[in-house]
Amino acid sequence: MHPRPPRRTSHSYGTPRDRLVYDRWGRSGRPVVLLHGLHYDRTMWWPMAAELADDITAVAVDLPGHGESAARDHCDVDDLAHDLAMLVHRLDLRRAPILIAHAEAAYLSERFAARYSTQRVVTVGSAGPAPLDDVPEVYRQFAVPRRDPALATAYRDWLTEALPRSTHLGAEAFPHLRDPAGFAAILHTLR
């Protein structure tokens, strides 16, 4: 019998104007911060995070204007890296996190890693529409982008490719949805 995965809890951080909403699994262990690409939200990480064991604390954050986080007129990557650092500090994770970034979030993860303590940066997927052929039907709901023209304006300064020092896992757009348990197992090897 396998141990039960940590239960997900939802939280928010910040003021109503700059609020970030996030989910957390686990209370101790190596912290992993999960960042979705543009037009997605934190729910894209739910299947994989549910597979994590108790020795990892996962935190999936809605970027501004996505999911339940407050929209911003302009999402400056330096400001958002600072907000993410304050959130990580508030969570009292006690160890430098591994950042897992999907598509455009690689830009934020690299900027964060350049300024704050980070164990590792891992990127998955790429920018733009992605085929869902390899994603099991049950997980496709987590890979549907929500198009919002305001997001294109707010994130106009973001790059679409990660900087070269990150570790890129897989050429598929959604390796964490194609095989959530396998992807979770990979996270255990990154310590």
What does this entry look like structurally?
- The protein has 191 residues and is α/β, with parallel strands linked by helices.
- It has one domain: 3-Layer(aba) Sandwich (Rossmann fold), CATH 3.40.50.1820.
- Helices cover 26% and strands 19% of the residues.
- The chain contains 6 helices and 7 strands; from the N terminus they run βββαβαβαβαβαα.
- It has a 7-stranded mixed beta sheet, with helices on one face.
- Helix 2 packs across helix 3.
- The longest helix is centred in the middle third of the chain and has 14 residues.
- It is globular.
- About 4% of the residues have low confidence.
| Average pLDDT over all residues | 86
Going across the biggest sheet, name each strand in turn. Answer: 1-2-4-3-5-6-7
Count the strands?
7
Overall radius of gyration: 15 Å
In CATH's first tier, which class applies?
Answer: Alpha Beta
CATH architecture: 3-Layer(aba) Sandwich
Query: Considering DSSP H and I runs of 4 or more, what fraction of the residues is helical?
Result: 25-40%
CATH topology: Rossmann fold
Runs with pLDDT <50, length 5+?
160-166
| Structural category | alpha/beta
Features:
6 helices; seven-stranded mixed β-sheet; Alpha/beta fold hydrolase; alpha/beta; 191 residues; hydrolase; AB_hydrolase_sf; AB_hydrolase_fold; Rossmann fold; 7 strands
